[in-house]
Amino acid sequence: MIEVKNLTKFYGVGESQLQALKGVSAKFEDGDYVVILGPSGSGKSTFLNAISGLEVPDDGQILYDGKDITKLRDADLTAFRKENVGFIFQQYYLLPNLSVEKNVKMGADLAGNKDYMSMIEAVGLAEKRHKYPSELSSGEQQRVSVARALAKKPKVLFLDEPTGALDEKTGRQVLDYISKLQKELGFTIVMVTHNLNIAKMAKTVIHMNSGVIQSVDRNEIQKSAYEIGW
Fold this sequence. Notes:
Blueprint: E1 2-11, E2 18-28, E3 33-37, H1 44-51, E4 59-64, E5 67-68, H2 74-84, E6 85-89, H3 100-110, H4 117-122, H5 138-151, E7 156-160, H6 168-185, E8 188-192, E9 204-209, E10 212-218
Parallel strand pairs: 3-8, 3-9, 6-7, 7-8
Antiparallel strand pairs: 1-2, 1-4, 4-5, 9-10
Helix pairs in contact: 3-5, 5-6
């Protein structure tokens, strides 16, 4: 379980200072599928970055099974991220001089996982494992980033607008792969998105605005990537 208590985060100083998070608290159950919604500037990406360990909050606690990661030194926090979390962003951040297989292997090596080919097969790219990012479509590149993130066997997968740069058909394919892999592997998903329809795929939907959580909803029925609107 991830438990967040009274998280605050400021940017800037003096009159230009902005409070991005205003005492935010939340809980994420193991194996949950969480979507965080909110307009630009609502604090949702800052919240995601804080709970994933990418940013250090100014105050509050972030507990992973009771362990407060806000108290960790930089080296220990890096080790924590390496061992526990995976990231998928709107931009793919693939290394252009490495093939599909080597990009995914890079993620697998972080966890000592030698079975990375199964993840390449799971996202449907086994036949293109020797291709380079420039030889792939945008959807295929994002699927490589999915395989790379999951090859390190994370307990929690954090996603920031993973379909933001994709067309509808490709976006649905990527979300479908992620959803199927979660059901197979049991990791927790925490996703930030502007797409209200994607929230219908989640178990838990968090609505944010002005640096606070306004409401938390639960979906009794989770829709597939091909059942939602776009």
